[in-house]
Amino acid sequence: MATITLRKDRVERSKGLVILPLKEYHRLLTRSVPTYHLTGKAAERLDKLAEEGLQESREGKTIRAGSLKEALRLYARKRAR
């Protein structure tokens, strides 16, 4: 077993400490993100939007970027032409 040394002032400053096994941490992490199930018109609209996006991707009309900010900048530049 490994020994862990904790500084009391850092634990007090952060208002506590929780130690969990990695498996338990990942289980809690996956449960923290809510899951939504759409039905009716909302589901149909989302399905149509996804299909349009996939079609544009197949046609090469999409923008490749490393971040949303970069994608918006590239999109704006493309629309200005």
Beta content comes to: under 5%
What would you call the shape?
elongated
**Overall pLDDT, averaged?**
89
- Could you give the distance between the termini? 63 Å
Content-based structural category: mainly alpha
* Number of separate strands: 0
Rg to the nearest angstrom? 23 Å
The biggest sheet, with number of strands, parallel, antiparallel or mixed sense and barrel status, is:
none
Poorly predicted parts: none
How many helices? Answer: 4
How many domains would you count in the coordinates?
A: 1
Helix content: 55-70%
Instruction: Give the topology string: H per helix, E per strand.
Output: HHHH
Describe this entry's structure for a reader.
With 81 residues, the protein is mostly helical. Helices cover 60% and strands 0% of the residues. The N and C termini lie far apart (63 Å).
